[in-house]
Write a structure and sequence with these properties.
Helix 2 runs antiparallel to helix 3, helix 2 packs parallel to helix 4 and helix 3 packs antiparallel against helix 4. Helix content is 83%, strand content 0%. It is mostly helical. About 9% of the residues have low confidence. It is elongated. The termini are far apart. It contains four helices and no strands. This is DUF4148 domain-containing protein. Keywords: Signal. It comes from Undibacterium baiyunense.
Length: 111
């Protein structure tokens, strides 16, 4: 009987302990930013494949994407991604998106 009560108590404690972890995970989640990063990587790869992006342009865009990833990692480091940090990441993604478009549509092509 006591064993069943102990097991029941441990299960209840374990479930209660998981609630803060779930909340913590939501505070650092950045699914929209990750989704945009994936989409922009596809756009860069398409530009390379079609010859619209030169090696130098591609390297520049990849550096921008790496900076966004580093900033995202830094924002998550303290356990909370604030609204200001999210706004900064979105602004960086917007600038990079415009750069991708401009570099793909300039007159420089891979010969």
């Amino acid at each position: 009987m006591k064993t069943a009560q102990i097991i029941s108590g441990l299960l209840a404690t374990g479930l209660i302990a998981l609630i803060p972890l779930n909340t913590f995970a939501q505070e650092t989640a950045t699914p929209n930013i990750t989704k945009r990063q994936i989409q922009q990587q596809k756009r860069i790869a398409d530009g390379v494949r079609s010859g619209e992006l030169t090696a130098k342009e591609t390297a520049n865009l990849e550096l921008r994407e790496a900076k966004i990833q580093a900033d995202k990692r830094a924002a998550k480091a303290d356990g909370v991604v604030t609204d200001a940090e999210r706004a900064k990441l979105h602004a960086q993604e917007n600038r990079t998106s415009r750069k991708i478009y401009r570099k793909k549509h300039n007159d420089r092509d891979v010969q």
